[in-house]
Design brief:
The chain is elongated and about 90 Å long. 45% of the residues lie in helices and 8% in strands. It is built from six helices and three strands; from the N terminus they run ααααβαβαβ. Strand 1, helix 5 and strand 2 form a beta-alpha-beta unit. The longest helix is centred in the first third of the chain and has 29 residues. It has a three-stranded parallel β-sheet with strand order 2-1-3, with helices on one face. Among the domains are: 35 residues, no CATH class; 56 residues, Oxidized Rhodanese, domain 1 (3-Layer(aba) Sandwich), CATH 3.40.250.10. It is mainly α and 146 residues long.
Length: 146
């Protein structure tokens, strides 16, 4: 009898295996929805700007505008050795081109060796008292340290 009961009993149901996510088809819908949302937001921004008569770049430029300020000399700092004549870079070049000026670098020899103005002679400040007799007496002497 036990065999008969088994044959009349319902067969065990097979459970369907759940599909594993990760297939290319499972990402299509979220990607499409995301693209539609981005397109809708971009459309809304463009339409709002057209109503206001502005553009995104104009709005950014207006919010990021910074006043231009030209640096002014500090009036509390005095120029060292005010009795010594100053000369501009342009005037120095003109005088050197004419052959009426000599450019003297009074920085250390190491600083001169690393970099110096074209045509400059090296007379380090600590040795200038010993070497000043070698400087030309008939030309404008332009000394610089930076």
């Amino acid at each position: 009898m036990s065999n008969k009961k088994r044959s009349n009993s319902r067969p065990a149901s097979r459970k369907a295996k759940p599909q594993q996510p990760g297939g290319a088809g499972s990402l299509v819908l979220p990607i499409l929805v995301g693209l539609l949302v981005v397109a809708f937001i971009a459309f809304a921004i463009v339409m709002s700007e057209k109503r206001q008569g502005t553009t995104t770049t104009g709005a950014i430029q207006n919010t990021l505008s910074v006043p231009v300020v030209t640096a002014q000399p500090n009036p509390t700092v005095s120029i060292p050795f005010p009795g010594i004549e100053r000369i501009s870079v342009k005037q120095t070049k003109e005088q050197m081109d004419k052959g009426t000026a000599v450019l003297i670098d009074v920085r250390s020899q190491a600083a001169y060796d690393q970099s110096h103005a074209a045509g400059a002679l090296s007379f380090p400040e600590e040795t200038i008292l010993e070497q000043y007799t070698q400087l030309p007496k008939d030309k404008l002497l332009v000394l610089y340290c930076t």
